[in-house]
Structure formats: structure tokens, C-alpha cells
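hey
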């Protein structure tokens, strides 16, 4: 039992490091996707900073408690949900309340990017567990 407490600490640290490194890459990919132009709109040459705001709101949280282990990637940027949604949003065209415009961002940019990166996080967790197992042997 003496070595198991050291392994638990080593496993926890290794898990956090591996998950953090893998998740950092996924979060950067999400930010890159958020900065790309949407399906519609954005051709006037004027910018509201929407894409930059969505990208800057991307956060990564590492969870290694007994109840939950893994990573949570969220975006709290202004209009982050609308930028992801396939139906988009409506807004007044150049401020005119008589002319409304339906705009679509990048449907699926968030979930598809996170989903594509999840095997890297899984591999990082498995690697940390192998490392801890190997340290128990020797």
C-alpha cells in the first residue's frame, strides 16, 4: 500500500498533464474554426467582432475527481450558440428595423471539432494509465 499512494498521485498528475495537452490542441482548433467566415453574411466589409468574440470565449476545464474524469471544452462567447446552430439568427439589416436578415454562422464547428479531437484525449488518458501501471511493476 505504501507505493500505491505514490502511484495515485503520479497517475493523477500524469492524467492532468496528458489531458491538458490534448485538450489545449482541441481548444485551439475550435478557436480556429470559430474565426472562419460563416455560411452567410459578413460580406459588407464591416466587422462586429462576432467571430473573435466566439473564439475568445473558448475555455478548457480539466476534471480529475473521483466522480468525473475528463475534459470540458466550452464557449461562452457572445452568440456562440447561434454561431453553432444550423438555423442561425435574425437581425436588422444595417440597423433598419424594417428589413430583417437571417444569418447562418458555421453549423457544427464546435461539436464536430471537439468530436474529431476526442481520440487524442482518450489516448492521453490511456497512456497515463499505462505509465502508472508500469510504475507499479517496477
Amino acid at each position: 500500500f505504501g507505493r500505491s499512494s505514490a502511484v495515485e498521485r503520479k497517475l493523477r498528475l500524469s492524467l492532468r498533464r496528458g489531458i491538458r495537452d490534448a485538450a489545449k490542441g482541441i481548444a485551439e482548433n475550435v478557436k480556429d474554426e470559430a474565426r472562419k467566415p460563416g455560411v452567410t453574411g459578413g460580406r459588407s466589409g464591416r466587422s462586429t467582432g462576432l467571430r473573435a468574440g466566439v473564439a475568445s470565449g473558448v475555455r478548457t476545464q480539466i476534471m480529475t475527481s473521483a466522480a468525473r474524469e475528463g475534459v470540458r471544452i466550452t464557449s461562452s462567447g457572445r452568440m456562440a450558440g447561434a454561431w453553432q446552430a444550423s438555423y442561425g439568427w435574425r437581425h436588422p439589416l444595417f440597423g433598419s428595423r424594417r428589413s430583417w436578415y437571417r444569418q447562418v454562422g458555421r453549423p457544427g464547428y464546435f461539436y464536430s471539432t471537439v468530436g474529431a479531437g476526442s481520440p487524442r484525449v482518450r489516448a492521453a488518458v490511456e497512456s497515463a494509465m499505462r505509465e502508472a501501471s508500469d510504475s507499479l511493476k517496477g
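The radius of gyration is 21 Å. The mean pLDDT is 81.
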